[in-house]
Amino acid sequence: MALLVLFSTISFTVDKHFCGSVLVDLAIFSEAEDCGMEHSGEMMDGHGCKDQTIHVEGQEDLKISFNDLDHPKQVFLASFTYSYVELFQELPKALIPFSDYSPPLLVYDIQLRDQTFLI
């Protein structure tokens, strides 16, 4: 859902450069480079070079500024963000005094010997 909102608010421009009926360059977010034929005056099959621009406009009504909110909402949003970030602070490493010792050898299974099972 977040990706849908993100992609619906993005605006971008697709720029195409054609020489005759052949696509020479395609550029997104920038201007397409020309083939250089229009500067030299050459024509290709009677057709000249042309540029085509497609502009896709994103939704503007989803953009909310922090300054557009009233003061109680700003306080709530700031305190919620601060408390949420503080939730994930790392705890210090605990000292385990018996970490270097191995457990005792298990000679036989006591639960199986006494026939006591948790159900």
Describe the structure using short key phrases.
119 residues, alpha+beta, 3-stranded antiparallel sheet, 4 helices, 3 strands, 28% helix, DUF8199, HYC_CC_PP
Could you characterize what this model shows?
The structure is a single chain. The chain is an alpha+beta fold. The chain has a domain at 7-87. 28% of the residues lie in helices and 19% in strands. It has helices at 2-8, 37-40, 71-87, 110-114, and strands at 12-19, 22-28, 49-56. The protein has a 3-stranded antiparallel β-sheet with strand order 2-1-3, with no helix packed on it. A hairpin with a 2-residue loop joins strand 1 (12-19) and strand 2 (22-28). The model has no long low-confidence stretch (mean pLDDT 80).
Question: What is the structure about, briefly put?
Answer:
With 119 residues, the protein is α+β, with helices and mostly antiparallel strands. It contains four helices and three strands; from the N terminus they run αββαβαα.
